[in-house]
Amino acid sequence: MNERQIDLAHAVALGSIDDEDHQEVQELLDSEDPVLRAEFAEQAKDTKRALSTFATAAAVTPPPSLRARLLAAIAAQQPPVAS
């Protein structure tokens, strides 16, 4: 795989493919080269796995007061209900 194809696999893993890149990704997935298709799929899978591992490792438990503050903020912004 070339650098552009690796970048596209990363974008697929992030779910950030735009319309311009979508066609290029589709061509890779439709490629008659089974090695290229497999490498692309493996790169996207590896990237998703790495992102998941990083997200899990970086996760922090929010403070208990956050839920109450969020619910109060939401309640304060609700429009009046018509009767």
UniProtKB/TrEMBL annotation:
Entry keywords, A to Z: Transcription, Transcription regulation
InterPro entries: Anti_sigma_zinc_sf, RskA_N
Gene3D superfamilies: Anti-sigma factor, zinc-finger domain
Stored Pfam families: RskA_N
Domain called Anti-sigma-K factor RskA N-terminal: residue spans: 6-47
Domain of life, per lineage: Bacteria
Protein name in UniProt: Anti-sigma-K factor RskA N-terminal domain-containing protein
Annotated organism of origin: Nocardia amamiensis
